[in-house]
Every structure is written in structure tokens, then in C-alpha cells.
Amino acid sequence: MIAKAKINNQGRIVLPAECREAAGMAPGAEVMVEVVGVGELRLRTKAEAIRKAQAIVARYIPKDRDLVSELIVERRKEAARE
User: Fold this and answer.
1) Is there a domain that residue 71 lies in?
2) How far apart are CA 78 and CA 66, in angstroms?
3) Measured CA angle at 9 (ends 7, 13), to 5 deg
4) What is the share, in percent, of the chain residues with pLDDT greater than 90?
5) CB of 44 within 8 A of CB of 34?
6) HSE (CB half, 13 Å, CA atoms) of 24?
7) Do the Cβ atoms of 29 and 36 come closer than 8 Å?
8) Helices (H), the chain
9) Would you say residue 60 lies in a domain?
10) How does pLDDT run across 26-61, given as a tens digit for each residue?
11) 24, 45, 60, 73: which has the highest count of C-beta atoms within 10 A?
12) Contact present, 21 and 29 (Cβ < 8 Å)
């Protein structure tokens, strides 16, 4: 989908409703703005940015490894030392 929008004097842009809806972005949603190249930006919802980051990390972590449990054990050891 392609739509046009203008940047106003305050640097704001209104995303067309059909684009927001197609991307799953609700009014008031927090979005991440990434500069992809000269004249090009990428918008992602916060949830989508987190999902992408998790997918990148998952490529390097074995499926049977539980990082959350490891962190909890580590924090408990640190707390016991204090």
C-alpha cells in the first residue's frame, strides 16, 4: 500500500488511516522510528520491534536454554552476597 502524507511546519506527519489499519497501528500507539537510509524511515509498533529483537536473539540461543531462569539464579546469588 502506498499513500501520500505531508510533514507540517512542526515536523509532524499524519499517517493515513488505511496505512495505520493495515500496519496494525492504533491512534495513540507508541512507535519506533528507524532511519533506514537517506530519505527513508521505518515505523514499527513497540510490540513489533520487541518481536523482531527476540527473533534475532533466538537465532543464537539453543532451544533448551532458559535465559530467564538463568537470570533469576544469578540475581539470587548476587542478593545472597549482599
Assistant:
1) yes
2) 19
3) 25
4) 76
5) yes
6) 5
7) no
8) 17-23, 46-58, 67-81
9) yes
10) 888 889 999 999 999 999 998 899 999 999 999 999
11) 45
12) no
CA 18, 28, 8: angle at the middle one, nearest 5? 70
Q: Are 25 and 43 in contact (CB under 8 A)?
A: yes
**Cell for 82?**
549482599
> Could you give the number of structural domains in the chain?
1
Q: Taking a C-beta distance cutoff of 8 angstroms, is the pair 30, 14 a contact?
A: no
Can you give the residue range of the structural domain that contains 34? 17-81
Domain-located, residue 1: no
Confidence at residue 79, expressed as pLDDT on a 0 to 100 scale: 95
Q: Helix %, strand %, coil % for the chain, to 5?
A: 45, 20, 40
